[in-house]
User: Fold these one by one.
Assistant:
Number 1:
Amino acid sequence: MTDHHHTIQAGERTIAVRKDLRVPMRDGVTLAADTYARVDDDTPRPALVALSPYGKELQALALTTPPQRRPSPMWDGCVEAGDIARVVQEGYVHVIGDLRGSGASEGAHIGNYNAGGVPLGRDAYDVIEWVAAQPWCDGNVGMIGISYFGSMQVLAAAERPPSLKAIFVSGGHYDFYETTYHGGIMWLMPRAAREGRGGDSGWAFTDGVKSRMLETYTPEEIRNRVADRLRDPDVAAWPNLVHVLNYPKNHEAWFDIVMNEVDGDWYEERNPITLAPNIDIPVWLQIDQGRGWTMDGTIDLYKALNGPKKLSIGPYPPMQSRPFIEEHDKMFRWYEYWLKGIDNGVMDEPAVTVHVEGSRETVTGTQWPPKNVEHRPLYLRPRRQLSYEPEPMGAKHAAPDGFYQAPLTVTDKVEILSWSTAPFTEPTEMIGQGAAHLFVEIDQPDTNFILRMWDEAPTGKRQLITTAYLKASHRELDTHHTTEGDPHHPHTRAVPVEPGRIAEYILRIYPFAATFLPGHRLVAELSNNEPLADEHNALLPPDAFHLPVGRPVTHKVYRDAAHPSRLVLPFTTVAARYKAE
């Protein structure tokens, strides 16, 4: 395929487009890329590289489609390479490439994020160095794009290509296990991102996508592993998973994820957080509130980086526009400094910037959390109350709360227990991560715990503040890393629950930053499935929910003197009760 040049009109600017450039990889495979640049001169310019398997033609919609916000039905989660016209206007060449096994590129894509195949970071290295050597590039390369494109930036930087001078990552995913299993509970949105369902076009697959599992194990081993996976009632009740396990060649990358339901080497070898100590170039990480697991991963990555770094946490809602246009002002200041050598003062500004929900204030600091935090408990109490005071009575008198959840195959109703504080009398700020200690008895070997924290205004209007997830069989703690208010679970094995026994489950409450204003309440909701439509989920793609529990479960939540069920939360402003002490 030969490349061809033409121009397009974007507003008042004419953009020069080079289509289907062939970029050679070190193993002889060639990848396809398009470039967008100014037509008014031949000056070599810095380049911003965007790489994904979503297809470069899809990314060109940024030139013709106004940015869409959820719940627009025209929002497509895979249009993520950035605002092409603005990139060109700011004096960069925008390079958008198809990863191997996708779009117009050659080669085979093996497994999730190519785990087990050619490392994607290695291909990114070759693309970056090829771009830097072109006559239209001045040798300085950065990267652009959110989500999958953001993860690619980190994988590229870990390979240390000499011409990659800095990266700016918005809305990336990092820990690949946490991308699909939140607290051990399967999240179905990665299926949509790969298959193209429910608001996502999915991967631009070619014939070369292969399952790493099918390549690694014999047919008999695969049969045995599939049969074992189908013994999980949650999996067996979900038609899409029954289908993918029986017909793996339909969706081989998703098959691999479904087959690997616990964490371990399969995920860790390509985990960007594991690779982060190799990165010494400047990195700016940005994430918006309302996406708990990606905020958690963003903060973990930030802590692991060694070079110059910044962290910005933006306001709710969770999903950025598609085509992606947000955060470009920050990005261009960053690249002006690191790619163009203009001292614009960006490195004199605080490293960490956090938007606090509720107060709408900006808090800055040198690390996360940017303020001193004291973890304090809010106890679950009878009559659905949350209180600073623990319950003095035993279970005989402070009888447990409970709910029975039938499988969603036979009901549309998701049962939800909630507990609420009294209205706050003064602004109460929390910044950080937390823990939910729940003493629960169930009558089955497993269930899900899905906890969601809301800020409820006096008018009844609610906004999601943060979430916590834990599959009951994944309750084991990583005692080496767990501290008060900051629990970690290894997720390396599932241990069935003994039905009828009260156990303590400690859920990780994902990082957040919020001030509860006077008159507002903190409401905590617990369920084992989540409602498919509510104030928050309406802002997410249609498939952004978790695998429902496939068996009927009765839950008894104990919150008495012997079973102090509680939320342990990161207070920066100490509640009035404590001020009086």
Note: The first helix runs from residue 56 to 59.
Number 2:
Amino acid sequence: MRRILPVVAVTATLPLVLGSSAGAADDSGDVTVVNTETVQAKLDATGALQEARVYEQLALSGRGTATIANPVSTSGLRNLDGFGAFRVEDGRLVTQVEVDGERRLRTVSDFDGDLPLGVDIRYTLDGTTVAPGDVVGRSGLLEVRYTVTNLTSREDEVTFDDGRGGTATATATTVVPMIGQLVTTLPPSFTDVQTAEAGVAGDGRGGTRLTFQMTLFPPIGSPTAEFGYSARISRGVVPAASLTSMPVSPLDYPSFKGGSASYASGAESGVDLTSGAITINDNLLRLHDGAATLLAGLVQLDEGAGTLRDGLTLEAAPGAGDLAAGLNGKILPGSRTLADGLNDQLLPGASTLSSGLVDQLAPGAKTLADGLNDQLAPGAATLADGLTDDAAPGAAKLAAGLNDSAAPGAAELAAGAAALDAGLASAAAKAPALIAGLTQVDDGLAKVDKGLADLSTQIGTLPTKAQPLRDGIARLRAGIGSTAAPAPGEQPSLLYAVNAVRSQLGAAATTAGDTVDSIADLKAGVTSPTTGLAAFTSMLPAGAQASYQAGLGNVAGGLDQLSAGMSDSASKLSTAATTLAAVQCGLSSATLPGVCSTAKPGLLEGLAGLDAGLQDLTTKVVASVQGGVGSATDTPDDETLRGGVNGLRAGVGTIQGGGGDLVAGLGRLGDGASKLSTGAGALSTGLADAASGSKDLADGLAGAATGAAAISEGLDGAAAGSTKVADGLGAAASGSEKLLAGLRSAASGSSTLAAGIGTAAAGSTTLAAGIQRAADGSELLAEGLGTASESAPQLVDGAQRLSDEGTSQLVESGAQTAATFGTGYAVLAAGAQRAADEGMAYGAPEGATGATAYSIEIAGADGSGATSIGKGVAALALFAAAGVVGTVVRRRTA
């Protein structure tokens, strides 16, 4: 059965200086008072309480008079210093004393309070539970188990920092913290002694001394301690035992002060860990939101990049290729052929024709007309007159002249006139084809001009088409942002969130590492043989040291596990910080100098380059192409395609106008040449006839006169025809000069056109190559954005998983650590307060300090009642308790 057992308890001992306020009005001087209480109890071998007494001692030092009211048990109160009577008022022993140096006042009385410990003892012999008396005289395997319980346990509400910026309350078991030891000596007849909890030593007389240590308060120990031993016995007895105990303050007692501080440090570390983990988790959630925004932007950008890729690959690049192919393969060679034809063929031919008409044919025709009108026609008339009037005398001369000169000259004149007529007919027949060809050239140039205008208009829409992509890039760059803190009310950027999370993870890793060091210090505080709990080992009996050290080993093992967990957390946090640094470098290589490689630009730098490339493409290409194409009002002096086309069309118009004049002049010249040919033929025939008939001239003067009249009439017609021929050739010469000027203008325009088309062709090739590079870049951009948009969900999911599986667990772990250590320290603090408030059996005088020691003597069983050994042990225990109390008091008052 369970019995209540007295034990040893000590409260904080501070010296009391009693002066006039300590007692009666005549009190004077300075007197220091220390009150010690020793409760001695006796139990039988079953643990049943038989009797208990309390010894009171007042230790006074100083000089003066003091009145002391000491709370005591008044039942059986006796003076141990003499036979004087006491004055008792309201349960207090009131004494007025004079002190000069040191003085002791001692009393004893019956203990009528509630003892703080209960003891339950069980005996088993050969596996069967027996009463203590059943062991006497028996042999076999005896097992004795002691259960000591701190009976001051109660459930209290304790408060601690929850690590989330507030406090938490928990219901925990608190006690008046007590330590103690149980000592028993086994006789020589007990052999093969086995125990897992006691320190074992010999007693010098063949017996075995066992010492059990007890720490009867949580969380360092437990409110209940169970221990015992087994032994082979013959002629069995139940050995007596003694148990001593005292209350302690775990916050001040040297053996537990370090452990309590470790709980405080652990609680603080748990709070720091929880706070840091909450901050990290919040930042991770912001990272998750930023990654989701990034994902949406990447999806939109991916769609825009796909549209850009399709537009560049399927439309712009083929169109630019077609344009370049058309300009290089068709328009440019055609313009060069046109320029070569105008410059190398048509212009020289026209120049030769103009020179022949102006310099030779027109002056010759004019000379011929002048000769016919001014000389040949009058001469023919004179000839007719001469033939009529002077024929005979001149017939011989005429015949000679006709045969030797006139007939051949007339033949040559007829042949030249016929050739002139044929040439002019051919020129007149080809001139309409030239004008028609120039009309076709003008139509072609109009189409070229329209195509250039369309090219200029369409290329001008490139910036508008590229703007959605640039807007998407701008939004993406804004979403990535920088590491600068956002203004109040603004959404944090992705780089800021990643940088903040990385910094906090690094700080958390450092904190976790510091916590590992704190745990190491806590372990040192537990295991150190000089300053930790292990220091208490040397104060214990040798038989109890192993059990105590085993308990400390369990605590150290738990601290090792905690240290390993914190080290693992620090490693994982450091790895997470390193991983986020790589993510941050991927976002921008400029944010972590010395960490990020500048040779590997991040996404932000790539987007900036892409945006600059698009800006350069949409401004320089458009400006270059539109500048090369020109406007509808440009002239060749503007050195643009449309200016060249305009100049070429003007030249073609000039050629067309001169061609009309040329056709008209050629017609008139043809008419005159035809008449000239007819007249020259008649002249040749007449002269031939004159030549053939000159022999008969003398005989046929009448016929000659008639022929001369015909010649005169023919020459009149020839003169009139030569005048027309001269006029026609003059008009042809004027038209040829206009034709030549138009052809020169057309040749110049064609050269300008060819040069402009060459520039356009080169530009179109550059444009096609640039658009192809843009198309290739858009393909890479689309692929990269596709990969990014496919990978971005992993960042979102990873951030969420890191929050759910990492930082959230870290928050819970930190909160659990804060709760575990915070509750433990709160329990220790509550125990310290209870030790101060409830540690003494009756209490000390007002303003004084004191201590209470509990000593219990457990009787043995040998068939003859309590043995002298048991009595000796009890006496020794009492003196030991008094010695411990005195030592503690002296240390605290020193």
Note: The longest strand covers residues 49-71.
Number 3:
Amino acid sequence: MNVDKRIIAKHTLITIIFLIPVYILFHFSYLRPAPKEKVPFSGPEAIDIAEFEQKATIGVKEDIEARTAYETRMLIDPVSGHIPADIRKKELFFSRKLPTRGASRLNSRRSTTYEITDTDWVPSGPFAIGGRTRALALDITDENTILAGGTSGGMWRSDDSGASWTKVTAPQDLHSVTCIAQDTRTGEENAWYYGTGELSGNSARGGGGAIYRGDGIFKSTNGGLSWTLLPSTAGGEPNNFTNAFQFVWNIVTNPNNDDEDEVLAATFGGIQRSTDGGNSWNYVLGEPTNNSSLFTDIALSKDGVFYATMSESSGTSSNSSAFRGIYRSTDGENWTNIIPNNFPRDFDRMVIGISDANPNVVYFLASSDPNDLWKYTYLFGDGTGAGGRWNNLTDNIPMFGGSVGDFDSQGSYNMVIRVHPEDENIVFVGGTNLYRSTDGFATTGNTTWIGGYSTLNDITNYVGHHPDQHNLLFLPSNPDVAISSHDGGISISNDITAPVVGWTSLNNGYITTQFYALAISESAENNIIVGGMQDNGSYMTSSTQLNGEWKRLLGGDGGYAAVGHNGTNVYVSSQNGRIIRYFKKEDEFISVARVDPSMAGQVPGQGLLFITPFILDPHNNSKMYVAGGDRIWRNNNVTQIPGSTDSTAINWFDLPDTRIGAGQVTSLAISTTPKNILYYGTSTGSIFKVTDADSFQPKKENLTPNSAIMGGYVSCIDIDPTNADNILVVFSNYNLQSIYQSVDGGQTFVPVGGNLEENSDGSGSGPSVRWAKIIPKLNNEYLYLAGTSTGLYSTENLAGDNTIWAQEGPDVIGNVVVPMIQYRQEDGMVAISTHGNGVYTKTFDNVLKLPEEPTANDFSLLQNFPNPFSDFTTIRFNLPQQSVARIKIFDSQGKQVRVLLLTTQFEGENEVIWDGKDGNGVNVSNGIYFYSLDYGVTSFIDEPLTKRIILTR
């Protein structure tokens, strides 16, 4: 033992004697007079944004229903394991009884009178970005008038060829528009009909069990300026599924029937017909039984012949539909099944395209295994047997290979087939992409990829267009001009027959985007709003004006976002937890890097969420927390991560003791006053509190009360910025108390859902609450906001079960889904994201502004720890102001080994990690090294600080 000590002492003395002159020379070289070095480019190296693109999808290879599973888990009744039947219609019916701002009503449930004052909300875009659009039509009396319907954004009308749009769906009406038709008879052109209820693909619905059943068919008698629900299609007070009009696939009117107002609708189970303008209906094909067809379609040829499709897949049983087939009718009442014997047995949705140039030619595109394409030519008789000729074109379905080149209907989610009005052989099919054939898909050699993803096959979008096709129509005055609707809204081509088809967006105020998440800057000076949208990626703006410009940052399904101090760093994400950091200098982004932890979500069954939460520490925006599946991951300086397209391990580690045994981490919140208190919730209803969250030994406490919330989905936790003991916890499930408050740091919880719950235990038809926000006001008062599946609500008094929530902006925001709310204390601005109508903002008065933190005058460099080190060592430092900081590593000879940090850091304490590698990523040899710190706004300081590191592997 004594020998070991002598050896160590001897080597230490030799090392010190040898290094004294080296250290003196190195250290005092900084003291020599020299001109100040100007602050250079201060962001990580630039990477082409195209390298980060990700295909938007309803699932991933490992889980093709990832989006559906994510949304379903948020909403299911934890007891039954299912989403209540018909809940969308029930909650809308229920919400109409709730108070609104500016109203004075009697609460019949609690016999309390209340007065509520007005609020003003304004739409803030995105002005030029549209959302998923299935319904599209031109007014036959004026082709400059376009009507289009977002699947969760309502009906919109343009009378100037898409240069501007007006929303014509009433805010309180259902916004799930799927199809539209005009009465084209002379003198009757002001009559329009639109159907509702998107059975497949509605990303606000929460999966199969929460299918957003429609509210029937709406009718307009004034050219689409206003709409009224047809009582015959409403089905009465919402209970169970009893009304096939809750799913309307398509509508046609009959221009050849001069004596009756004839309308036919492809609904759940079959084709229904009305001869009195929708006042009454009867089935003419199929019926709503256990063996009825789940998918239907109808189309009318130019010579007055109807065609309809009825899926093999059944609506409410595992059996095949008794009405499976392809049908033809000359009068809309009597139908003949013309499906050929060799048509594939199993198929789901099938869409129809009829040639105007030759109405005897009809194309059928079916979602089967995987897809089928057939051409039918009517010859004589009833069209069956020898009376019709069938050509199987399936082998010629477009297949361009690569990552996105092949036709892909995504299980019938996106399907359209249309024929050029003047040429029966120019045929268009749409899946994720849009394709054109000039020989009716008789061969593969005459097919062109003309929309959707870029023909570069690199997951970027086709210029002016968007993936996931839903409709296509042609201008009557010039059929080469085509208008396309897709998951990105609406586009127009001035020549769809051109060798290279060009497109221009018509999303000029067509605000139908479907946000998942939103973030805003803490500074009104830069006024940044950034958010992630379903199938539209992530965009950013610096304006709250309706027509403000939004800049595209990332593709895919956009997720959580964050804005660093002064807007220097902006973070966006896409599905399954990919997080991208943008470095912003003045008004330009000059670098980009992927920063999500490579180790997160590795536990089977507890992987990353489809939309993965992450947050920045409000006191140091270089520190990030990520909901990493079964645990929380922390990065102490995410700005240090260099440009890369891969996930990273740099500076990431899992927060000790935050792992959960089951489910996934679903929500995160970090405190402002006091610092470093982290709350998080899970998909199984658990709630946890972590103190000293910034340390290496945080303390975790399980706050989950022993109550019915077990098994629920914690969609949001919000912390009072003035008092970290005051929190709101939100459960998004149906049939569960939605909002809980704790004023003692989670020791006790009180349900405060109040009148948002139909019953005091949370059961019934109350909306799903997705988010909550605590806004401190002057005089110890508060404003509380709740984002729900039926709009935005507020209260100024949390009174347990007697809490009265009133709807905000009922005539502006309406009943669209509000998944997230963000608040800025500096000026009282609130921004909400909606899943269907973009972003709304409002600035509240009389809010409490937090006092500014004392200015840190300290400029110091702390000793690294551990020291000596073998793998990683942490270097902490303090800055007196936010500025560019630079840390260099030198060897014992004074030679620069690496620039460890060169980017904006924050006032106060910061830290970086060195992994013992040089600037080329190569391990350096054991020995003594030095690290220096300087900082500056326009130029670096004269005297950097320096300390010594010992590396011993």
Note: The helical segments are 2-28, 66-75, 87-95, 231-234.
